[in-house]
């Protein structure tokens, strides 16, 4: 149990003392203001009316001592007394507005930490109006406030937890700007973890069957992807207002506001930063989704993780429903997923450190990612690629570790000419339309499987053979087009 002692409270608000008292541990206040001591006692806080510089007024033990009088010189004297009486305690000293350079220097030699209200206010003002973070946020809010109607927050097709959480967070930010919005997606949510996230959090997401009517939305935002018509089914000429993504783009990105930062592990991290700087406390639903999004995209903080990801997680954690998060993390596996996993193992083709597997027809495309994750754990495998057929399209999912190759670049080089592909150095995906090949009868499916293997695996191995190992380049882009564009 942490034992806290507050000596003098002229510079400290009473609400701070009460909040401190509500935390685990104990609080004792010593103040020379009799009325303040009586007020604290009336609120259930242990308080003594006496001289803060007199050790006879102190309790027997203290783990943390906070010196909070109005006068800096008096605080310096009290700090010296407290340090002598509690040599092992953490000592925090408040600097009054009268702090001279000599008094400040004396206190900084004694205290473990100082609280300077003048500097705090100046830093907060600069943070609000003068930093790159605040400028970025101000541009985003200007774009949102310029919308005359509803906003469509569009996730990529078959959204994962990072996209879902980012959409929910941007919806909350839009609400701060008095803009109503829908979090939308094309396709299906088939991965059991993703379904569990939506169902357990009771999320209200809109499934789009086709492009919205021209007058249905006043603006469009893309989260966790950056171009219309690429990994979503919006028309490629859709005017985009907002893009927030952590994937490096393959082609130029056009929107009125763009935030592309590949130096973080998840788009959820960027949206958490927005919430924190706007002073929006996320509700349990949004906080739980954001933390799960960060966990999934960083593979539990082991893949492409940054300091910002840890800071975002620390900010979110007090607002998360941990019991519900545990249920989302351990959903039951469907029979279709288990069948895909079994076929991926049986059909694997290992060449050196690279494993590919054609699982044939699938019903859940997210099962490919789960199979690729699982196969990457095989001894000696640094790259795993699993692909299958569904609805006239070959879906490809890859995972890598060890830094031998940039998997996203490899997928783009090998598969973009015949479909769409992209991703990160250690996680990538692709879609290849089959066209007329999909019209073959059941008796020709085996031949089709061979053709698909030749196309996918053949291109990947050929590209890998000529791919140099190159360092990953982080992208950090933020800009805003004129509002009247």
UniProtKB/TrEMBL annotation:
Gene3D superfamilies: 3.10.310.30, inorganic pyrophosphatase (n-terminal core) (3.90.1640.10), NAD(P)-binding Rossmann-like Domain (3.40.50.720). InterPro entries: DDH_dom, DHH_sf, DHHA1_dom, NAD(P)-bd_dom_sf, Oligoribo/pAp-PDE_c-di-AMP_PDE. GO terms for molecular function: nucleic acid binding. Residues 152-294 form the DDH domain. Residues 353-435 form the DHHA1 domain. This is Bifunctional oligoribonuclease/PAP phosphatase NrnA.
């Amino acid at each position: 149990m942490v034992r806290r002692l507050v000596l003098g409270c002229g510079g400290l608000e009473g609400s701070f003392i009460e909040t401190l008292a509500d935390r685990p541990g104990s609080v004792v206040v010593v103040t020379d203001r009799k009325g303040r001591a009586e007020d604290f006692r009336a609120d259930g806080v242990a308080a003594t009316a006496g001289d803060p510089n007199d050790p006879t007024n102190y309790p027997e033990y203290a783990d943390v001592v906070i010196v909070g009088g109005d006068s800096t010189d008096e605080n310096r004297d009290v700090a010296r007394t407290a340090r002598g009486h509690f040599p092992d305690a953490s000592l925090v000293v408040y600097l009054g507005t009268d702090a001279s350079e000599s008094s400040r220097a004396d206190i900084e030699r004694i205290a473990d930490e100082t609280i300077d209200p003048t500097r705090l206010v100046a830093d907060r003002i600069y943070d609000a109006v003068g930093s790159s973070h605040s400028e970025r946020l101000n541009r985003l809010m200007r774009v949102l406030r310029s919308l005359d109607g509803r906003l469509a927050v569009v996730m990529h097709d078959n959204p994962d937890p990072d996209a879902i959480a980012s959409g929910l967070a941007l919806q909350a930010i839009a609400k701060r700007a008095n803009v109503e919005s829908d979090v939308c997606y094309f396709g299906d949510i088939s991965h059991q973890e993703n379904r569990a996230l939506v169902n357990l959090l009771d999320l209200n997401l809109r499934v789009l069957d086709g492009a919205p009517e021209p007058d249905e939305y006043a603006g469009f935002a893309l989260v966790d992807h950056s171009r219309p018509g690429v990994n979503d089914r919006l028309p490629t000429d859709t005017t985009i207002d907002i893009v927030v993504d952590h994937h490096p783009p393959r082609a130029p990105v056009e929107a009125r506001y763009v935030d592309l930062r590949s130096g973080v592990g998840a788009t959820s991290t960027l949206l958490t930063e927005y919430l924190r700087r706007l002073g929006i406390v996320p509700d349990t639903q949004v906080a739980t989704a954001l933390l799960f999004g960060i966990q999934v995209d960083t593979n539990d903080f082991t893949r492409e993780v940054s300091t910002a990801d840890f800071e975002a997680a620390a900010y979110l954690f007090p607002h998360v429903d941990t019991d519900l998060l545990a249920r989302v993390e351990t959903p039951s596996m469907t029979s279709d997923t288990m069948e895909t996993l079994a076929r991926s193992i049986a059909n694997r083709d290992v060449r050196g450190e690279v494993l590919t597997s054609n699982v044939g027809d699938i019903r859940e495309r997210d099962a490919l990612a789960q199979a690729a994750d699982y196969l990457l754990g095989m001894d000696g495998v640094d790259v795993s690629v699993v692909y299958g057929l569904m609805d006239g399209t070959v879906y490809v999912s890859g995972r890598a570790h060890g830094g031998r190759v940039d998997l996203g670049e490899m997928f783009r080089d090998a598969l973009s000419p015949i479909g769409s592909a992209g991703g990160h150095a250690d996680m990538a995906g692709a879609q290849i339309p089959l066209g007329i090949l999909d019209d073959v009868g059941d008796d020709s499916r085996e031949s089709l499987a061979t053709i698909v293997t030749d196309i996918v695996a053949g291109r990947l191995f050929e590209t890998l053979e000529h791919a140099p190992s190159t360092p990953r380049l982080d992208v950090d882009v933020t800009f805003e087009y004129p509002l009247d564009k």
